[in-house]
Amino acid sequence: MIKINNLTKKYERDRETVTVLQQLNLLVDEGEIVSIMGPSGVGKTTLLNIIAGLDTDIDGDVEVEGRHLQKLSLSQLAVYRNKTIGFIFQEFNLLPHLNALENALVPLMFADISHSEAEKKALNALETVGLKEMAQRYPSELSGGQKQRVAIARALINRPKVILADEPTANLDADTEKSIIKLITRLAEEEKATLIIATHNGELASLAQRIFTIEELQGGAA
């Protein structure tokens, strides 16, 4: 499903070259739930962005479902992200001028379906995360947990094969955190999707079938 070989990511900062990831190797099977742990700044988000095809300025090879991401054109990457990847962000990234229903259907805006069908799918997605009755509410009218549920509905609306969750509970209180963790893992299992969670939270990480740190993935095969 996901094969990463000798991945190195560098960038320029203040005229210096900074290495974020160095010779990282990772193999994740289809339908597997994996946690990537490490403190802030170690490269967890960078790794998820690379798997999502948001960053292809890398050395090494990243293969997802047989696609070598560095070889894809910009248009092919856009299709890949829309059809294959569901991304759950730490900051929710909801559009403030759209209600919950409209935010959930954003990935369908470029799909070859009618607006009414897109709304139906978005409503079903909101129902799946327990927010059907909040469909007309705007982000400013939602709690942190509700915002993250809308973000989860948006991430899963295309039934992606790969779900990437970047510190998905970092901005939530302890009780809400637990319910969101259970929701993400349950939905991934129901959809038979591959789930990669980047986190510094040991309780969240423990729900995965395998747990890695960025440090132990670098310089050797996982």
Which fold name corresponds to the CATH topology?
Rossmann fold
Strand order of the largest sheet: 6-7-8-3-9
Whole-number mean pLDDT: 91
Categorize the overall geometry: globular
Quaternary state of the chains: single chain
Low-confidence stretches: none
Task: Describe the sheet with the most strands.
Answer: 5 strands, parallel
Instruction: State Rg.
Output: 17 Å
Query: Helicity, in percent?
Result: 25-40%
Instruction: Assign the CATH architecture.
Output: 3-Layer(aba) Sandwich
| Element-by-element helix/strand order | EEEHEEHEHHHEHEHEH
- Rounded to the nearest angstrom, the distance between the terminal CA atoms is 14 Å
The helix-and-strand class reads: alpha/beta
Number of strands: 9
Number of domains: 1
Question: What is the number of helices?
Answer: 8
Strand content: 25-35%
Description:
By secondary structure, this protein is α/β, with parallel strands linked by helices. It has one domain (30-58, 69-211): P-loop containing nucleotide triphosphate hydrolases (Rossmann fold, 3-Layer(aba) Sandwich), CATH 3.40.50.300. The protein is built from eight helices and nine strands. It has helices at 44-51, 74-84, 100-104, 115-128, 144-156, 174-191, 202-205, 214-217, and strands at residues 2-13, 16-28, 33-37, 59-64, 67-68, 85-88, 162-166, 194-199, 210-213. The chain has a five-stranded parallel sheet with strand order 6-7-8-3-9, with helices on both faces. A four-stranded antiparallel sheet has the order 2-1-4-5, covered by helices on one side. Helix 4 (115-128) packs across helix 5 (144-156) and helix 5 (144-156) runs parallel beside helix 6. The longest helix has 18 residues, at 174-191. The radius of gyration is 17 Å and the shape is globular.
